[in-house]
Amino acid sequence: MPARLPTAADFPSHLNLTITIPPLTAPRPTNVLLLLHGLGDTSKSFTELSKQMKLPETVCLSLQAPMPLPFDLGGFHWGDDIIFDQTDGQMDIDTGFERAIRAIKLDVIERSLIEKCGYKHREIMMLGFGQGGVAALAAASSITEELGGVISIGGPLPRSSSSKHNITTPLLLLGGSSNTVITRTVIERLRTAFQNVVYHKWQRPGDGMPVNHQEMLPIMGFFARRLRSRHGVPERSIEVA
After folding, report:
1. What string of DSSP letters covers 115-126?
2. Are 201 and 224 in contact (CB under 8 A)?
3. CA 42 to CA 25: how far, in whole Å?
4. Which of 30, 118, 181, 186 is most exposed, with the fewest beta carbons within 10 Å of its own?
5. Spatial distance between the Cα atoms of 89 and 53, rounded to a whole number of angstroms
6. Mean pLDDT score of the chain, rounded to an integer?
7. C-alpha separations of 4 from 29, 38, 135 in Å
8. Cα separation of 234 and 241, whole Å?
9. Which of 76, 207, 77 is closest to 151 using CA atoms?
10. pLDDT tens across 110-141, in order?
């Protein structure tokens, strides 16, 4: 039996997330895409992104990070702590992710999407930007089963996950050609931990979100390879492994 559509009631009340479903005329969603925003942002921006992408047979969940930034800065963060770099005054994006892992892995994926809604690990994907990408990689590295895939835009593997090996979940990593956190060392660490890593370097500085159709192509190609489809499959069919 295919999974059912998730509703807000399926998730713990302390989570702030929005659910975007494909048009009701489409087949029942076979996939879930979990979107994780960057440091200092909210779930709103990725809710809009999920509507723009219009992925087939895919329900999108935009999850807000659990902790607000201090000093009335606005926005939220995924880390267990707030640490400022003394050299440039910027906030460190890698400050521990135990709280984020609990929210993503336990509250959203295992207890809600899998146990309540009937999805399988292979039908769940994650896309994260910046610190959201780090949180996605931290969660994926803590899950034994293969997920549908992880897309990390400008987000490295956190230091706390550096001992992980042979993770089967496929990974798409994206970053700029300069002024980027995606260094050769970051790529090597990810390829040590994950069995299948594809790295795409944009021909522009910085690790910002895609700004045009050309920069979205690697992401949409990854979705095309990893999203599942039940189009044309009878409603009560049973998958035989």
Report:
1. TTT---GGGEEE
2. no
3. 30
4. 118
5. 35
6. 89
7. 8, 29, 26
8. 17
9. 207
10. 999 999 999 999 999 999 999 999 999 999 99
